[in-house]
Predict the 3D structure of the following.
Amino acid sequence: MGARFLQLLAVLALCCAPARSGWLPATATFYGGADGSGTMHGACGYGNLYDQGYGVNNAALSTALFNDGASCGQCYVVICDTSKTAWCKPGTWVTVSATNFCPPNWSLPSDNGGWCNPPRPHFDMSQPAWETIAVYRAGIVPVLYQRIKCWRNGGVRFTINGFNYFELVLVTNVAGSGSIASMAVKGTNTGWMQMTRNWGANWHSLAALAGQGLSFALTSTGGQYILFQDAVPAWWQFGQTFSTYQNFDY
C-alpha cells in the first residue's frame, strides 16, 4: 500500500511538472497474450515469473535499456504520452519489472517494426501491463518512463544450478535498485571468490563448492552492499533455491 502510494505521488508529480524532470521518452508495445503467460522465462533467467514474485507486470527491454542483462530485475514506472498520441488511457500508469530482452530486428527499420533496434529505448510489455495505460488497437505508443525503487516480498533468493566445478547462481527477488552489480561467494573451506555474470541474473563460479556451506556478498546497482552469511547449508543440491531474510533498500 505504501509503495503504491509513493509511486502514485511520482506520477502526479509528472503530470504537474511542466519540464517533466527526470522522465525519459521511449516507446512501448506488448507481447505474451491476454493473460501474459507468453512472457514467462526469458533472457533474465527468472523462469516462472509468478513463482519468482515478479508477476505479470513485466517487460522485455531493448538493447539500449537491457545493458547485457545488468538491468534484469529493475523497476520502471511507465505512462503513455498523451501529448503525442490519442491512444492513451489518460491518468493511468503502470510499474513493470525488467524480466526479458527485446532483440533487434535488423530486417525492419527502427521506425517501422524494428522497435527494439539500437539506440531506441523500448519496452515490450506484457499485454495486461500495456493495456493498463493504452488502448489495445494502438499496437505501439510513445511513453514516458522513470526507473524507481523495487518493492519485493521477503528476502533475496539464490537458486543454485550447474554441475561439478561450475556453480550457476540465479539471484531473484531483489528489492531496492532491483539488480546486482557484483557478487562474490565463500565456501566453508574457501576464501572469498569473485563471481561473474554469466547471463541475465545468473552469476557463475568455477570452484568445487559441493558439500560446503555458502555465503554470498552482493552489491546492488544502487551501491548497497549486503553480506548473506551462511545463506546456503552444506547439504545443498543443484536445482535448489534458498531464501534469505535480507534485502536491499537501494
DSSP finds three helices and 15 strands in the chain. Residues 2-16 form the longest helix (15 residues). Confidence is low (pLDDT under 50) at residues 5-19.
